[in-house]
Fold:
Amino acid sequence: MSHAESGFKAAKLAVLTVSDTRNEDTDTSGRFLAEALVADGHILVDKKIVIDDKYKIRAIVSQWIADEDIQGVLITGGTGFTARDTTPEAVQPLFDKAIEGFGELFRAVSYDEIGTSTIQSRAVGGFANKTVIFCMPGSTGACKTGWNKILREQLNNSHRPCNFMPHI
Structure:
């Protein structure tokens, strides 16, 4: 069944890569998310790369959640435990509501792939101004896990019993 036949509604999404070293040529994680969301019928509204600085991250995400043309933000990188990893600290103060289950489920499905190393993921999700935000680790494998095992279904209005589309 095609998207049109299923009543599929495309989400308008932005992708942010948080990295001190990646650029457009080397950003395989952000590129994967952008390509995957478009391949699944969604609309890529914007894509940026920002250094791992919580105020710069927060500034971009704040602009996107204020933009009525953006319904969701996918962030890759900055979720580890080094001093430079500040993505959760940057975005969580912006949340109107946290999606606790996203980080929990991300770590659960990651366990099958990377074992106990999944405990080092600080993947988080939340809503801000009717915009859904998901923060994933910076590896391309982690982005594939997040998209293929969680976000693909949760950003599809035909997924049952529920999905995030009515909320954005």
In short: The first helix runs from residue 3 to 6. The CA atoms of residues 29 and 140 lie 4 Å apart.
